[in-house]
Amino acid sequence: MAETVRQENKMGVMPVNKLLITMALPMIISMLVQAMYNIVDSIFVSRICEDALTAVSLAFPMQNLMIAVASGTGVGMNALLSRSLGEKNQESANAAAKHGIFLALCSYLVFLLFGLIACGFFFRTQTDSTVIIRYGETYLSICCICSIGIFMQMNFERILQATGRTFYSMITQTVGAVINIILDPILIFGMFGMPEMGIAGAAVATVFGQIVASLLAIFFNIRFNTDVSLNFRGFRPQGRIIRQIYSVGIPSILMMSISSVMVYGMNRILLAFTSTATAVFGVYFKLQSFIFMPIFGMNNGMVPIVAYNYGAAKPDRILKTIKLAMTYAEAFMLIGLAAFQLIPDVLLSMFNASTDMLAIGEPALRTISWSFLVAGICIICSSTFQALGNGMYSLLVSFARQLVVLLPAAFLLSLTGNVNAVWWSFPIAEVASLTCSLLFLRRINRKILAPLYEVQKQRQTA
User: Is residue 58 a part of any domain in this protein?
Assistant: First the structure.
């Protein structure tokens, strides 16, 4: 007989607004630190030269793919773990956590192999510049070969989040990012007696921060997480649990992987104009992360709340969580819109922008930022679908936005011969994403949330 959770988790009883803030605020803070690291990392790389910055931009699709696999596996494990806790099934919760760790290790081995044999080929498919290829191969091979840190960090952080211990996740992410920020200039430029490593130093700083963060996350789970047992004695992979994790995780992985395909395609389109346009696009992704990362932090706090209350059959708490998350997300997006519209030159100047880069970058940031008006709602909808076990909806929305609308629109607009026209593909795609998201959210409400009221009534009268 399965063990049972002895007392109600706070995700089922604490007032929703207080709970969401309690769960999300540590994650928002840590995500802001992560975003700051992304920006600072590129700022230091831009001091090497614009080709180095372009190389890091071209490496982004593969780095994003690593994050997609690590995060998607964690999301699937998180949803199953939170739902098991809501159903008071301790045995299932323990199995979900252990299988998530196992799958993360398997994923790392794939990217280790890529880092050893395929990085050069990846860059040669995008550019024939030997300088950019050399910078990119050096940077990406280190990130892939030493990616054990990012896989373990994300998985163990998701376990902390699923059990309501987001404060510890904030510590691990913050420590990892701060270490990276500190080491970047030291290793890139050879300070305090360290050798000058250039772009390799940026990669080493990144993976070292990830490894330290992963070790902290493991320690916090073993020392402080009493809701889940991570004893691997007698562990055997079970196909049923792996399928349950990936029923949510694979749509999430594919959804984020689609972003890698989109960036890869967009880089190819922009390189037809100039490598500077590609550098601008890379800088945009770093800057927008400072706006989007807090919303992803909100998601990380929201998903276990929604998943737990889904398992506990408490639809009112689910709906209130979704509405509050959308409100907070839109507030972040409005701040981002104002910054991109009013001070694009200041933002670009942080990356040692040349005159050409400013000429391309200022209209780019102003145009793309109009998509922020509705992006917050779309992100919250996507996480809601995943938390309720309908990750396929998130995948369909992402596929429609980035591959069916954005890339074709960017290609068609590029035929005008004006790079400034290409940026309008982002607002166009976001409107399509909003339309799809609201349609699916309406279906979720009718098919899943409304029937929960009857389940809730039956449990109360039982």
Answer: yes
Which structural domain range is residue 438 located in? 13-461
Residue 462: pLDDT above 70?
no
Q: What is the pLDDT of residue 129?
A: 87
Closest among 403, 328, 413 to 367, alpha carbons compared? 413
Identify the sign of the CA torsion 343, 173, 95, 253: positive
Please give the tally of structural domains in the chain.
Answer: 1
In the chain, what is the straight-line distance between the N-terminal and C-terminal CA atoms, in Å?
A: 21
**Residue 172 falls within a domain, yes or no?**
yes
pLDDT more than 90, % of the chain = 37
In this predicted structure, the answer to whether residue 6 has a pLDDT above a threshold of 60 is no
**How many other β-carbons are positioned within 10 Å of the β-carbon of residue 408?**
14
pTM attached to this predicted model: 0.76
What is the pLDDT at residue 12?
67
Residue at 190 is within a domain: yes
CA torsion, ordered 389, 324, 69, 115, to nearest 10 deg: 180
Nearest to 37 by CA among 163, 175, 165, 157: 175
Is 2 among the domain residues? Answer: no
Please state the φ and ψ torsions of residue 380, each to the nearest 5 degrees.
Answer: -65, -40
Question: Torsions phi, psi of 70, nearest 5?
Answer: -65, -45
